[in-house]
Design goal:
alpha/beta, ABC transporter transmembrane region fold, Rossmann fold, 2 domains, 6-stranded mixed sheet, 22 helices, elongated, disordered N terminus
Length: 671
């Protein structure tokens, strides 16, 4: 990513130096005039000369880099979670160790049963040995139960203390992503995938302790027992396990595809439902209830079809496992060992040990194959969700994807929390600011803006729709990162992220959290706030009267996005928030354009109280609201074309004069 600045930035070797443009697309460099330059390379090795169609070494290197990148990203989610588990490996190893001990005590029971039966069947009965084997058998059984319960307690402590912490890391990284991240993704899918990652990783942790450890102990133990009975039994069981794994892999592979399709369908449908409910006002306004209901029904049918395919292959798996165990393992093993026992080639103890191991084998081997197969499916779901959210990077060490931001080096690695930067205030200066959105990186929205704003100055920004006003505000608020040198305060370069910490913002359409009025007013305010301070801010914003009439006063919940309040009431809540926040810079983005006359008067009075002793940057289509500004800046096609007071600009009879003359109802017309 590169941004426009006065100093030239060296590009890749053999390329020309050019002034980079602020955009979020690697490889997009543009000259200051806004025209993307062509990369110029020497026509030797590693480049394509005129008329050449072959692939140079640069293309080969790119292909190798892409291959390495894909390999690095493979299993990125699992590696990330293992790094997280490594932070509490001591308690985790303790839990695993107790589970290993518990399962080991259970695994020797078939041998003890065989020895006990042999002692009872001998003539005369070996009483001492019988009591000894029975006592050891009972001790192993009780020891297994006690250690298992102990392992459960240790696991639950581990889960409650650390198991859910990874979800905090996930959410911390998501919420600290830059503005473009949320613009380019489906909100419902982000929420669904964060939940999926947390849930699936907890299930993997639980399965690892309760199932995988058990299988790792039992399978080798049973195979050793069978080979100790006789070679034929050992080979029979070994062959059976191999057959089950082959059959299971064949069926689960299809089941995994069906499960993935089901997960995709469910995720898409959940996201669609969230989108419909979030926009219920539009649904109601256009009477689209039945239409949306039918669309959800159609999507639900796709989910049901995917669920049917998934269930079908699950049934095929369990049926195939049943056929292998019931119709192959049991008949062959029992007939073979019974023949050996009847012909004196096998003792009663060995035969009893064999039968006990056979029952134990049949009881858990199905689940073993299933869990092994399900692990691949879980990992596939996890990797898909992780890649969608974080593009394969390590969230524990890198934090949110703010690599383009100069602030990125600060803060706690892996915490998901940004560094706390000091707020700045003073004379603002923007030099050579050029910017293009990543989705259309060849179309400059801002081109070479040079602008200075004195401390305490009131600036109005006007222009036609699409002239770059909103983009300029987004950059001030730190939605898109800028490198050092683009913004300076009192001559000291700062990042726009740091600048944003000194800004209070009142948007055109304020959306509130589904929380109390008090919570919405204090939102974003650093430090504790008293009720008296909240009410004082509300009074100054002309909001206290309607808040007092609300059912629960300041504790009234405003509904999702503040739906229970009118537009004017939401605006006054936002102004009260700005009063309480009390930052040195105030940005107003069309703060009164959507209000009725009565609400506009109240909001305008509140704003005039608010911006005293502050640097104000106000965007407006209604030019009459900017008459008392110290200076008005006119933007056109991303450039500053005029600036001055209202009277000065009218006298120049330029772009501002034409906008003023063409106003209809106080609004700038769309051209």
């Amino acid at each position: 990513m590169s941004f426009g600045a006065d100093a030239a930035v060296p590009l890749v070797k053999n390329k020309v130096r050019a002034r980079p443009v602020a955009c979020h697309h690697l490889g997009m460099d543009s000259v200051a005039g806004g025209v993307p330059h062509q990369e110029i390379r020497s026509p030797g090795i590693g480049s394509r000369g005129a008329g050449q169609n072959g692939t140079g070494l640069d293309d080969v290197g790119t292909a190798v880099d892409n291959l390495v990148s894909r390999r690095v990203e493979r299993h990125a989610a699992l590696r990330s979670y293992l790094r997280f588990v490594a932070t509490f490996k001591g308690p985790a190893l303790l839990v695993v160790g107790v589970f290993v001990l518990s399962n080991s005590l259970l695994a020797v029971i078939p041998v003890l049963i065989g020895l006990l039966v042999q002692a009872l069947a001998s003539a005369p009965v070996q009483t001492h040995d019988a009591y000894l084997y029975a006592g050891v058998l009972l001790a192993c059984n009780i020891g297994h139960d006690l250690t298992w319960r102990g392992a459960e307690v240790l696991y639950l402590r581990l889960l409650n203390h650390r198991g859910y912490e990874y979800e905090n890391i996930l959410f911390g990284n998501v919420i600290n992503e830059r503005y473009p991240y949320f613009v380019g993704k489906f909100t419902g899918k982000i929420s669904s995938y964060v939940s999926t990652l947390g849930r699936e990783f907890r299930e993997i942790l639980e399965t690892a302790c309760f199932t995988y450890v058990e299988q790792l102990v039992k399978v080798p133990a049973i195979l050793m027992i069978m080979f100790s009975v006789n070679l034929y039994s050992g080979l029979t069981f070994l062959g059976s396990v191999a057959i089950m794994l082959l059959v299971g892999r064949h069926t689960v592979r299809r089941s995994a595809r069906a499960e993935k399709r089901l997960a995709d369908e469910v995720s898409e449908m959940d996201g669609y439902v969230i989108d419909v409910i979030s926009n219920f006002v539009s649904v109601k306004s256009f009477l689209q209830e039945e239409a949306e209901y039918e669309r959800v029904r159609r999507r639900r049918r796709q989910v049901i079809a995917a669920a049917y395919r998934s269930s079908f292959w699950s049934i095929v798996f369990w049926t195939s496992m049943s056929l292998v165990v019931r119709y192959l393992v049991w008949p062959v093993s029992i007939v073979l060992n019974l023949y050996l026992f009847l012909h004196g080639e096998m003792s009663l103890a060995q035969f009893t040990t064999f039968l006990s191991a056979l029952v134990l084998f049949s009881d858990f081997i199905w689940g073993t194959v299933w869990e092994i197969a399900q692990l691949n499916l879980r990992l596939a779901r996890i990797e898909e969700a992780y890649h969608y959210l974080f593009a394969g990077r390590n969230i524990l060490s890198a934090g949110p994807d703010n690599s383009a931001s100069p602030d990125n080096s600060a803060g706690s690695a892996g915490s998901g929390r940004p560094a706390v930067l000091p707020a700045v205030s003073g004379r603002l200066q923007f030099q050579g600011l050029s910017f293009a959105y990543p989705e259309n990186d060849r179309n400059l929205v801002l081109a070479g803006i040079d602008l200075a704003i004195e401390r305490g100055e009131k600036i109005g920004i006007v222009g036609r729709s699409g002239s770059g006003k909103t983009t300029f505000i987004k950059l001030l608020l730190g939605y898109y990162p800028l490198p050092p040198g683009m913004v300076a305060v009192d001559g000291v370069p700062v990042s726009n992220r740091q600048l944003a910490r000194g800004i209070s913002y009142v948007p055109q359409d304020t959306t509130l959290f589904h929380r109390s009025i008090r919570d919405n007013i204090v939102y974003g305010t650093a430090g504790p706030v008293t009720q008296a301070q909240v009410e004082a801010a509300a009074l100054r914003a002309h909001a206290h009267s309607f808040i007092s009439r609300a059912p629960d006063g300041y504790d009234t919940v405003v509904g999702e996005r503040g739906i229970k309040l009118s537009t004017g009431q939401r605006q006054r809540i936002a102004i009260a928030r700005a009063f309480l926040d009390d930052k040195p810079i105030l940005i107003l983005d069309e703060a009164t354009s959507a209000l009725d006359s009565e609400s506009e008067v109240l909001v305008q009075n509140a704003l005039e109280n608010l911006w005293r002793d502050k640097t104000v940057i106000a965007v407006a289509h209604r030019l009459s609201t900017l008459l008392h500004m110290d200076r008005i800046v006119v933007l056109d096609d991303g450039r500053v074309v005029e600036q001055g007071s209202h009277r000065e600009l009218l006298e120049r009879r330029g772009r501002y004069h034409r906008l003023w003359q063409r106003q209809s109802g106080g609004m700038i017309p769309v051209e």
